[in-house]
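User: What would this chain look like folded?
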Amino acid sequence: MKVGVIDVGGGFRGIYATGVLDFCQDSGIRFDLAIGISAGSANLASFVARQRGRNYTFYTQYAFRKKYASLRNFILGKGFFDVDYVYGTLSNSDGENPLDYPALRDDPAEFIVIATDAVTGEARYFDKNALSQDNYAPLKASSSIPFVNKPYFIDGKPYYDGALGNPVPVAKAFELGCDLVVLILTKPENKPREQGSDAKIAKRVQKKYPKAAEQLCLRARHYNEGVALAQEYAKEGKLIVISPDDTCGVDTLHKDKEALVKLYEKGYADGKKIQKFFEEKGILTK
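Assistant: Here's the prediction, encoded as structure tokens.
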């Protein structure tokens, strides 16, 4: 039986998924396929590498550094999130908190990072072969939110956040052979995504990347369709949705230390639902 996990990301709300995944680490729960988007790709990179607690440090400590995320970064042209600082300076082998790349590479789990081709608007699925020691470009590309960040270039091609191309890749997980899937959302499952400022942001990139702008305008619809599909699979017993009942005031770009810790704790507690789900499927024994 092939079991997959999807982490859809969500900026600072991603700490919820960190809690879920830390519970999985502590409980010996592993997955055969891990698909990550934006912050979700970073969460899962550490999970596959078995670096329990690594992401918690990023959210609760490093995220409050101006080099990590700030208006100053944006003014200096590095983007609000300095992806080179996060996935380079901090994460490289000589960094403050290195990603254990050999462990990630050698783990039997498949690892997929989704980014969006800024020119075509289509999702690009990067696997482990696209990563190498101190070269985590797909993570940077997947986390490059339009306008908030400039597109990240890989092999001469510009990429934006993976949520534009495929925000809830449930169909992709089953296409890749999964029998069971754990979908981790970072906002309440039954709260539809609204377009909000997507249209306004789309206008900022429309001239240079019209297809990306088009996908940005459709993101809410695609997200809601993805969640609806997940709920259909859940009815069939093939999937479980893990999501917070409340985000504690944490949002994509907004962070508060106390709120982040609360959201993490919600995620850790909700991880028990995965354990129960797997026990019912005979994957884990009590």
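The chain has a mean pLDDT of 95. If you want, I can go into more detail on any region.
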